[in-house]
Specification:
about 110 residues, STM4215-like, mainly beta, 6 strands, six-stranded mixed β-sheet
Length: about 110
């Protein structure tokens, strides 16, 4: 939910979708993202860090859209790395790898 809310705050985004079904009508400009994988890092046989990786795609009919720049700048919640750009069906697609990092507090069982 943290990533979803951060992406919704980006100026110019009409809708944010998490793994939308193919039957859903997409409203542009939008961001579509999906979960890729997570990794847990341990020290002294105790987990201390969990990394969640997502793929996010900004889709806009405007080739001069600035939405993709905001995805890169919103680094207080996540880290984004630009992967590629392509066009399909007269829509522009900017694809990013996004990483969320959660420090694990083992004493209380909470993510920080």
């Amino acid at each position: 939910m943290v990533l979803h809310h951060a992406l919704q705050k980006i100026p110019g985004v009409r809708k944010v979708y998490f793994q939308p079904p193919s039957s859903e009508k997409i409203k542009y400009p939008c961001i579509i993202y999906q979960f890729n994988r997570y990794s847990t890092f341990s020290a002294n046989n105790e987990p201390y860090l969990m990394v969640n990786d997502y793929t996010a795609m900004v889709i806009d009919s405007n080739p001069e859209s600035c939405i993709h720049e905001y995805v890169l700048k919103n680094s207080d919640v996540y880290r984004a790395r630009f992967d590629r750009f392509y066009t399909a069906d007269n829509l522009n697609h900017w694809v990013f790898d996004i990483t969320l990092i959660n420090h694990i507090d083992n004493k209380e069982g909470n993510n920080v």
